[in-house]
Amino acid sequence: MTVHDLPVINAGLNTLCTVLLLSGFVCIRKRKVEAHRACMAGAVLTSVLFLASYLTYHAQVGTTRFTAQGWIRPLYFSILTSHTILAAAIVPLVALTLRLALRREFPRHARLARWTLPLWLYVSVTGVVIYVLLYQVMPGPSVRP
């Protein structure tokens, strides 16, 4: 495995995070608290692994430029912009939501989770969409150190 394998690993981690988040949501709706806890712990761990892998890739490879032209270009940058803003915002939201759960402040946890979950899902799903657009759809992305 090389550093150039990390984008596909990152997409896989984002996909796994999405599955864990949705599973955790279903579990809590069915009042399966232990299963919910396990899914959400898995989602947090998966996100931490993603972040470490993402930072490692970009520290070693640099910026990957989106070189496609036409209608897909503004679509890509719209998704990337919203993803980037919400990815920065989701970190403290997840941390606070997790903290409230660990402190057993479940009413506050549930109120905040109603915001955290959809935003976290959006970041995870759009992370995969960005990967597909950048590495699978467009011809040969350009890498800049």
At a glance:
The chain has 145 residues and is mainly alpha-helical.
Note down, in words, how this protein is organized.
The model has no long low-confidence stretch (mean pLDDT 93). The longest helix has 32 residues. The protein is elongated. It has a single domain, classed as Cytochrome c oxidase, subunit III, four-helix bundle (Four Helix Bundle (Hemerythrin (Met), subunit A), Up-down Bundle), CATH 1.20.120. Helix 1 runs antiparallel to helix 2. It has 145 residues and is mainly alpha-helical. The relative contact order is 0.17.
Q: How are the elements arranged and paired?
A:
Layout: H1 6-29, H2 33-61, E1 63-65, H3 72-102, H4 106-137, E2 142-144
Antiparallel strand pairs: 1-2
Helix pairs in contact: 1-2, 1-4, 3-4
